[in-house]
Amino acid sequence: MPDYTIPTSADIRLEADGKRIAVVQNYEIHAKSNCIAIGEFGSNSAVAVVHGPMQYSITLSRVYATDEAISDNIRFYELENFSLVISKPDRSIVFTGCQWTELSESAKIGSTILEDVTLIAAVREEYLL
Fold first, then answer.
1. What is the rounded radius of gyration, in angstroms, for the C-alpha atoms of the chain?
2. Structural domain of residue 90, as residue ranges?
3. N or C: which end of the chain has fewer CB within 10 A?
4. Domain tally for the chain?
């Protein structure tokens, strides 16, 4: 029987300049391609469909800043061009060129600040392990 590991929130992380700045408990990814129908001169029907660039909209919830990010005084509101890394047992999925579109915080007395984030990623790459 193969030895599989179950991914945890430590396997879903945000990185900036090669440093782990946050771990993420939940994520939801929406990929959208802008398609264009190509018609033939004199015809009412499309003869082909051309795919445009992919756009990745990602919603992250229960985002926790790492101790290193807190000690380095990293402000999530000021981050640009960061990465989202999702490690799975057989591969890693890396979204790069990320930019925030929405960021919210919540906290209770004596607990860690939680952040919910919506971001857009420019590139999605997969690496087999």
1. 19
2. 9-128
3. N
4. 1
Are the beta carbons of 87 and 52 closer than 8 angstroms? no
Residue 50 falls inside a structural domain: yes
Nearest-5° angle of CA 98, CA 89, CA 96?
10
Cα 128 to chain centroid, rounded: 18
* Residue 112 forms part of a structural domain: yes
CA distance 22 to 15: 7
In a domain, 1, yes or no: no
- What is the per-residue pLDDT across 7-41, written as a single tens digit (0 to 9) for each? 555 689 999 988 999 999 999 999 998 888 888 88
Residue pLDDT, tens place only, 62-120 = 888 888 888 888 888 888 999 999 998 889 999 999 999 999 888 778 766 768 899 99
Q: Bridge partners of 54?
A: 33
Check: CB of residue 38 under 8 Å from CB of residue 51. Answer: no
The model's pTM: 0.80
Any domain includes 95: yes
